[in-house]
Amino acid sequence: MSSILRGGICRSSAVFSQMAKAGFVHCPSENEPDVACCFYCLRELEGWEPEDNPWSEHAKRSPNCAFLHMKKTFDKLTAIEYFQLEQERLRIYIRKMGHRKIAFFRDEVETTSKNLRALI
């Protein structure tokens, strides 16, 4: 994706538009400035090439993403359909954040254990 986004600046608005339509938003970090993330399933993708198709890349890496399988556009969803999609999106987000916190906690426990063993 470095050919598409560099330092948060879009090089091709047509490619950027296609990525957005496929559900991707630019979500850079200090270590990975060119990452795009699906707003729904939170699948992160990097290393985009200009010829990559955002829809097929999304489907290949996250085939169960409900955003990919929507039969209607957002403006045609009923309130109940929108609520159900949003509920699932939040469930995915909470699960991902929970896994991150658990991984962080495990790393902290390991570091603390090593430090304590060094004191003995």
- Measured between the Cα atoms of the first and last residue, the distance is 49 Å
* Number of beta-strand segments: 5
The mean pLDDT is 85
Share of β-strand residues: 5-15%
Low-confidence stretches: 1-10
CATH topology of the largest domain: Inhibitor Of Apoptosis Protein (2mihbC-IAP-1), Chain A
CATH architecture of the largest domain: Orthogonal Bundle
- What letter string, H or E per element, gives the SSE order? EEHEEEHH
- What's the total helix number? 3
State the share of residues found in helices, binned by percent: 40-55%
Which of globular, elongated, flat, extended, rod-shaped describes the shape? flat
Strand order of the largest sheet: 3-4-5
- Total count of domains: 2
CATH-level-4 superfamily name of the largest domain: Inhibitor Of Apoptosis Protein (2mihbC-IAP-1), Chain A
Largest sheet: 3 strands, antiparallel
Task: Indicate the structural class.
Answer: mainly alpha
Structure description:
This is Survivin. It is found in: Chromosome, Centromere; Cytoplasm, Cytoskeleton, Spindle. Belongs to the IAP family. Keywords: Cell cycle, Cell division, Centromere, Chromosome partition, Metal-binding, Mitosis, Zinc. The chain has 120 residues and is mainly alpha-helical. It has two domains: 1-63, Inhibitor Of Apoptosis Protein (2mihbC-IAP-1), Chain A (Orthogonal Bundle); 70-120. Helix content is 48%, strand content 10%. The strands form two sheets. A three-stranded antiparallel beta sheet has the order 3-4-5. The model is unreliable at 1-10 (pLDDT under 50).
